[in-house]
Amino acid sequence: MRTIRQLLAGEDEIQLAVRLALLALLIYWSFVVIRPFVPILAWSVVLTVALYPVFNWLSGLFGNRPKLAATILTLVNLGIVIGPATWLGLGAVDGLRGFAAQLGAGTLVVPSPPEGVKDWPVIGAPLYALWEQASTNLRTALREFAPHLKPVAGTMLGLAGDAGVGALKFLIAVVLTGILFPAGPRLVAASRRFLSRVVAERSQDFLALAGATIRSVAQGVIGIAVAQGLVIGIILELADVPRAGVLAFAVMMLGILQIGSAIVVIPVLIWIWATKSFAVALLITLCILPASLADNVLKPIVMGRGLTTPALVIFLGVIGGTLAHGIVGLFIGPIILAVAWELLTAWVRDDELKMPTSPDAEPATKASAAPGIGTV
C-alpha cells in the first residue's frame, strides 16, 4: 500500500506533465500564428543588421537624430524596391510565364543564327554551325520531352505567381526595418541576454559572429548580386534585348550562387554583335562588361576577409529558401543557413580547443583556446 508521500509525489508528476503539455501546446500554437510572418521578420532583421552601419552614419550626420535617419533610409529603400526593382521584377515575371508556357508546350526554340555570323573572321563559320545545330536539336528535344517538362514549367509558374506576394512582403519588411533601426541597441542587448542563457561562455562572440556573417552575406553576396542584376537588366532593357527581365533575374541568381554572370552575358553579347550594328554593339559591350566584372572588385572590398561559408551551403540556402518561402526565401535562405553554418563551425571549433588530448597537454590547450575565442 502506497504512502501519502508517494501519492503526493505522483500528483506532482501529473501536474508537471500537464503543465509541460500546456506549455508545448502554447508554443506550437504561437508558432502557427506567427508562421506567415517569419519570412518578413527574418528579412527585416537581416536588413537592419546589414544596413545598421549606414543608419549609424546617417544618424551622426544629422546630429544624432536616429528617427530622421531611419525615415530617410527607409524612403531610399522603398524607392529602390518600388522603382527599378519592381520594373525589372515585372519584366522577369512576364518572361518566366512565357518561358514556362513554351517549355510546357514544347514550343521553346533558340532563334536561328543571322546569316552575317558566317562572315565573322575565324569563329564565324563554326559558331554559325553550332548555333544552327543548337536551334534545330532543341526544337526536336523539347517536342520529345515536353510531357516530362510540365512539372518544371508548373514550378516556374508558381514562382512567377508568388512574385506579387513576395513584393508585398518586401515592402512590409522594409517598413519594419525602419522601425527596428532606432531600437537596434536594445535588440542587441536582448539577444545577448537570450544567448547568455543558451551559450553563457560565448554569447558575446556568437552574437558578433552572427552579425558579421549577416553583413558579409547580405552586402557581399546578396547586395552585389541584386545590384549587378539591376544594372545589367537596365542595360539590356534599354538595348531592346528580348527577355531582359528574365536575363537580369538569371544574372542575380548566378551571382547569389557564386557562379558568375558569364554564362548569361557571353551568349547575350554574341547575339547583340550578330543582330545590332557595330556602333550599338560596341556601346552595349562597353556598358555590360564593367557591370559583369564589377563583382570581382566589389566583393573583396565589401566582405573584407572573404566569405568562409562553403558555396554548397549558399546553394542549399537559395534552393531551400525559395521552396519554403517563395521569392523572399531566395534572399533570406542563404543568409540564415550561412549564419547557422558559421555558428555551428565556431561551436565545434571551440569544443575542440577545450578538449585536452592528454593530461600533460591540458595547460597548453587551455592557453591556446584563449586567443581563439577572440578571433572567431
Structure summarized in a few sentences:
The chain is mainly α and 376 residues long. It has helices at residues 4-34, 38-61, 66-105, 124-161, 163-180, 184-198, 203-238, 244-256, 262-275, 278-303, 311-325, 329-354, 362-375. Mean pLDDT is 75; it is low at 358-376.
Would you write up a description of this structure?
The structure is a single chain. By secondary structure, the chain is mainly alpha-helical. Helix 2 (38-61) crosses helix 3 and helix 2 (38-61) packs across helix 5 (163-180). It has 13 helices and no strands. The model is unreliable at 358-376 (pLDDT under 50). The chain has one domain.
Number of beta strands: 0
- Average pLDDT: 75
- Helix-strand sequence: HHHHHHHHHHHHH
**Estimated share of beta-strand residues:** under 5%
Overall structural class, as computed from helix and strand content, comes to: mainly alpha
Major β-sheet profile: none
Assign an overall shape.
elongated
Please tell me the total number of domains. Answer: 1
Q: Outline the low-pLDDT stretches.
A: 358-376
Radius of gyration computed on alpha carbons: 27 Å
Distance between the termini: 60 Å
Put simply, the count of helices is 13
Helix content: over 70%
